[in-house]
Amino acid sequence: MTQPAITTNALTKRFGDFIATNAITFEVAPGEIFGFLGANGAGKTTAMRMLCGLLKPSSGEARVAGFDIYTQTEKIKQRIGYMSQKFSLYEDLTVKENIRFYAGIYGLSNSQIREKTAGLLEKLRMEDEADKLVSALPLGWKQKLSFSIAVIHDPTIVFLDEPTGGVDPITRRHFWDLIYESASRGVTIFVTTHYMDEAEYCNRISIMVDGKIRALDTPAALKQQFGAASMNDVFLQLARAKS
Fold first, then answer.
1. pLDDT at 1
2. Where is 220: in which H helix or E strand?
3. DSSP code of residue 106
4. Is residue 162 predicted with pLDDT exceeding 80?
5. Secondary element (H or E) of residue 217
6. 6-242 falls under which CATH superfamily?
7. Strand order in the sheet with 67-68
8. Residue 210: which pLDDT band, with cuts at 50, 70 and 90?
9. What pLDDT, in 10s, does the model give residues 14-52?
10. Domain boundaries defined on the chain
11. Do 163 and 83 contact (CB within 8 A), yes or no?
12. Angstrom distances, CA of residue 218 to CA of 84, 99, 192, 215
């Protein structure tokens, strides 16, 4: 059997007396679109930062792309892509300069950088914008560019932290087309969001409440389990049960 793309066991992060992520346990299959849902402050970003090797856990275990998050963080970073909720772009650099900069950070050779830059600009139909500052781009274009840069080095797993925050519903739906395209190539997608409707786009989802995973299954199974018409109804039931 193929090993899971991500696996965690009782993964916990404490900040003093505050438990941000409380003993979470789950697995993500290769090529799966896994939604990590919850309200703002539920612990989603903390969990993602631990999995990316950016934050050391307080306790528990986890492996990403087969590597241990305590001792093999550099190997994890080589195999993942990451897009933050701020799109991770430098506003004072041009489109082309952003692509080249991040391609270099990801370790691509000069010839690969030239090839990837040309291919990405053509794919995004941004040849005419190549020398424009990113700050001059519409929000939707920044979003697509940031995601495309996050996968420019062909990672096996991509972490997306609130990638559709602050954009309109149509732009959000177009962004999910990019996610589907990557998943169709076998890339594992780990996406955090507080938009409950986006759960419908995922293969499976977990719902975080106050640092704990309160539900984990396919969207259809969770709606059936909670007798709910939508994922938002599921979330509201979980929130009420907490209080």
1. 44
2. helix 219-226
3. T
4. yes
5. strand 212-217
6. P-loop containing nucleotide triphosphate hydrolases (3.40.50.300)
7. 18-28, 6-15, 59-64, 67-68
8. confident
9. 999 999 999 999 999 999 999 998 877 788 889 999 999
10. 6-242
11. yes
12. 25, 35, 15, 10
